[in-house]
Amino acid sequence: MRFLFPVLLLTVAFGHIRIFESDEKMEDIGEEEYYGLEDFGSVKKFDVHIHINTEEDFFIAQAQADNFRFLDIVDDRPFGLPMEEQQKLAMLHLKNFPKRMVFATTFSVDDWGNEKWSENTIEKLKKSVSEGAVAVKIWKNIGMDLRDENGKFVMVDDARLDPILDFLETNNIPLLGHNGEPRDCWLPLDEMTFSQGYYSAHPEYHMYLHPEYPSYQDQIDARDHMLEKHPNLTFMGAHLGSLEWSLDELAKRLDRYPNMHVDLTRLSNLKLHAFNDRQKTRDFFIKYQDRLIYGTDSQINTTENPTAFKKNIHDRWLREWKFYVTDEQINLKDYGDFKGLQLPTEVVDKIYAKNALRILGLQNWGSKPE
Fold first, then answer.
1. Domains of the chain, with CATH numbers?
2. Is the dihedral of CA 162, 164, 168, 174 positive or negative?
3. What pLDDT digit, counting tens, does each position of 218-253 carry?
4. Please, are residues 195 and 182 in contact by the beta-carbon 8 Å criterion?
5. How far apart, in whole angstroms, are the C-alpha atoms of residue 220 and residue 199?
6. What is the model's pLDDT at position 366?
7. Between the CA of residue 16 and those of 10, 19, 279, what are the distances in Å?
């Protein structure tokens, strides 16, 4: 069901009120359309940030039931499944569900320092693309773990990465970048906004405990410098581009780098922005509607209870749909209640599917998923 709201006497946009003169023709006045909760199942959607770590396909069945397609992302992370195993699973599911999912590959830095590292890496990326990869992921190990032969941290703007980025830029292959961490990472646990659980479990990435590592600003500056060096690179900044704490700072980057987009996987931060200033947050979404991509960063693991797992995924998707498409009351734990953003259908369609399909070159991908 779509709600139509005729704008007869005034409109409110970006905080300004327009009063119409009495002699204006009604047909010249537009209408805003909005989805409701009941539209969730009928609207085609795309989750741009999923990690599948199992051969089981219960998640894909739920995605089909909820009208979702998705990008499965392979990471070069030091915990969980090795990247080679992640990619095997991605290719398995791609073979079985070619109209439901695509995948992003990655590259290893284990052989960093080898004079043929970039040449060998590009050849591996070419192979992955030939096997179906539609994007490449670069992870926070570059900037927060990898060091060169002199013990210096390798940052994402390092010149030795340029051949890889040049290859992606030349071939119009999008780069999905998890560069740095949320600003909370450099704070004590009891001063964090939302990240206490992750950094309690992964103290190796809790930068408050590692002051000798590059700073938050070092990470952001390196990422920005990388984008300056590669202006035609299609870039998707994971987790709101690690600028989750400030819509103003994020807007500066989106204005400065026209090929930068961000996924919306720090939803708690977005809810906090809406709690503090709903109109500003809504205006941000409307202004940058072509640059925002829906994603959840869901981890899909083997489970003894697929039914419960599927319900949890469904409930999460539905809760997030409620935040974006309705103005109903939403509760943010430890803060209070606020109203959902109720974005127009045109904006919802872009952030939930059209932007991702355009960025990944999938506009003509399976008009009718299986």
1. 43-324+344-359 (3.20.20.140)
2. negative
3. 999 999 999 999 999 999 999 999 999 999 999 999
4. yes
5. 20
6. 62
7. 10, 10, 11
